[in-house]
């Protein structure tokens, strides 16, 4: 998961300028993306769950003897995600924790299975970016731990070691999950702002409203505004709100992206204003069939022949001056 910080002040200056009815884009994250996230997320999740365990105070009958405990391995065997309608994402993690208890004379090894349940709310942040937050988190210890090298160790001591470890995990595992999500929010914060698309043009992204969450997908309504020389491209006609149909896109696709007609119109208007659609046809082309010169033009317009008796090349400048309507057609 990557990491850049917000552009809140810049957005506050830009967003009121362009109004509320804007060219739209819809980004829909489907169920299939959850499997992909689960797969690539196992490694960073295992690393995040390797929390630090404080010393265990072992009473030897006279004084409390501090005993070091360290997590030597975390193996995530199950990492499931599912959408919760009108809320966000539910997470289920099953992992085996291996602890090493450094007792004298022989160290003790403990394997503890843990199931972690967490609900993450997906909302809209103050700078119009997606924000994920952990609203509920519960570590469960249903399976019995397995000790190795416990021969000769008092059963009461083993129980105390278990209680110490479980208390630490209850306090720290959910905090680690929350920190992992905060790292994701830092990455999501970089998805908005101005992005260059040319020497003098930029595109600005922001979320129009809170994400729509169903059992099948999360849908983000994104406002995409094009800028030329620092000024927003505003369509001559009022742009309609763009809606992506519920059942659209290829089956099994991780994401579906819908681009509105207004966004294409805005892009073409930017090209027109920037002069990218203008064309210069020159008469200096090296071709025997090139008739673009003053002699040929003088046969049609006598004034040209009188002013330019000798053949000279002519440049034809084509300029797109009026607004044109562009249509996207289904094929």
Automatic annotation (TrEMBL):
A Pfam family per the record: LBP_BPI_CETP_C
Gene3D superfamilies: Bactericidal permeability-increasing protein, domain 2
Residue span(s) of domain Lipid-binding serum glycoprotein C-terminal: 253-318
Sorted UniProt keywords: Signal
Tree of life domain: Eukaryota
Stretch forming the signal peptide: 1-19
The Lipid-binding serum glycoprotein N-terminal domain, residue ranges: 34-184
Molecular-function GO term, any one: lipid binding
Classification via PANTHER family: BPI FOLD-CONTAINING FAMILY B MEMBER 2, BPI FOLD-CONTAINING FAMILY B MEMBER 4-RELATED
Family named by the database record: Belongs to the BPI/LBP/Plunc superfamily. BPI/LBP family.
Protein name (record): BPI fold-containing family B member 2
């Amino acid at each position: 998961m990557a990491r850049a910080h917000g552009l809140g002040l810049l957005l506050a200056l830009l967003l009121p300028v362009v109004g509320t009815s804007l060219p739209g884009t819809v980004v829909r994250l489907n169920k299939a993306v959850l499997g992909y996230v689960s797969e690539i997320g196992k490694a960073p999740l295992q690393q995040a769950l390797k929390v630090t365990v404080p010393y265990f105070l072992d009473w030897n009958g006279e004084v409390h003897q501090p005993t070091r405990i360290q997590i030597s391995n975390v193996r995530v065997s199950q990492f499931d995600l599912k959408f919760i309608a009108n809320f966000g994402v539910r997470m289920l993690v099953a992992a085996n924790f291996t602890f090493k208890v450094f007792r004298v004379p022989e160290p003790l090894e403990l394997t503890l299975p843990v199931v972690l349940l967490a609900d993450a709310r997906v909302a809209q942040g103050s700078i119009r970016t997606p924000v994920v937050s952990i609203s509920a988190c519960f570590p469960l210890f249903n399976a019995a731990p397995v000790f190795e090298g416990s021969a000769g160790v008092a059963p009461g001591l083993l129980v105390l070691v278990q209680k110490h470890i479980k208390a630490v995990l209850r306090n720290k595992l959910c905090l680690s999950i929350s920190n992992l999500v905060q790292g994701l929010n830092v990455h999501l914060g970089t998805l908005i702002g101005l992005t260059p698309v040319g020497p003098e043009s930029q595109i600005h992204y922001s979320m129009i409203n809170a994400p729509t969450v169903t059992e099948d997908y999360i849908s983000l309504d994104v406002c995409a505004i094009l800028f030329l020389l620092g000024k927003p491209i505003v369509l001559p006609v009022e742009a309609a709100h763009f809606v992506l149909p519920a059942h659209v896109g290829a089956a099994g696709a991780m994401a579906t992206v819908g681009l509105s007609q207004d966004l294409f119109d805005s892009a073409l208007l930017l090209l027109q204003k920037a002069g990218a659609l203008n064309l210069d046809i020159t008469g200096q082309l090296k071709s025997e069939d090139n008739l673009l010169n003053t002699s040929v033009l003088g046969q049609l317009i006598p004034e040209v022949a009188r002013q330019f008796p000798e053949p000279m090349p002519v440049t034809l400048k084509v300029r797109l001056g009026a607004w044109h309507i562009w249509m996207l057609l289904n094929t």
